[in-house]
Amino acid sequence: MKGILVAVVLVVGASTVSANPTPFADASGHVRGTTARTVVDSRAGAARPSVTKLHPVVGSVHRTGHFTNPITHRTKYSDTVYNPVLGQFGLRTFRR
């Protein structure tokens, strides 16, 4: 049942994608400026970001879990990361 639902969502989503030949253009055809260098993908012909690595913000690591696993000695932490392509900050969690 879940597989059928996923297939329907994918088909509907794929049918609503517009074939816009100009990357980063809005509905009126105006091309927006980008915040990072872009590279044109030779197979798809679309622009893809050249920098996709998330950059951690210095001093933003916080311990979010109060339980430490007695065998692995790991606990949950979270930190803030910066995505230079989108110009957005995000929160990620990890165990260490």
List the helices and strands and how they pair.
Layout: H1 2-15, E1 38-40, E2 47-49, E3 55-56, E4 62-63, E5 76-83, E6 88-95
Antiparallel strand pairs: 1-2, 3-5, 4-5, 5-6
How would you describe the overall organization of this protein?
The chain has 96 residues and is an alpha+beta fold. The protein folds into two domains: 18-50, no CATH class; 51-96, no CATH class. Helix content is 15%, strand content 27%. Strands 3, 4, 5 and 6 form a four-stranded antiparallel β-sheet that branches. Strands 1-2 form a two-stranded antiparallel sheet. Strand 5 (76-83) and strand 6 (88-95) form a beta hairpin. The longest helix has 14 residues, at 2-15. The model has no long low-confidence stretch (mean pLDDT 73).
What's this, in brief?
The chain has one helix at 2-15; strands at 38-40, 47-49, 55-56, 62-63, 76-83, 88-95. The protein has 96 residues and is of the alpha+beta class.
Assembly type: single chain
The chain-level structural class is alpha+beta
Mean pLDDT: 73
Q: What ranges have pLDDT less than 50 throughout 5 or more consecutive residues?
A: none
Order of helices and strands: HEEEEEE
The radius of gyration computed from the alpha-carbon positions, rounded to a whole number of angstroms, is 20 Å
**How much of the sequence is in beta strands?**
25-35%
Helical run tally: 1
Helix content: 10-25%
**SS elements, strand count:** 6
Number of domains: 2
Query: Distance between termini?
Result: 37 Å
What characteristic shape results from the CA principal axes?
flat
Largest sheet: 4 strands, antiparallel
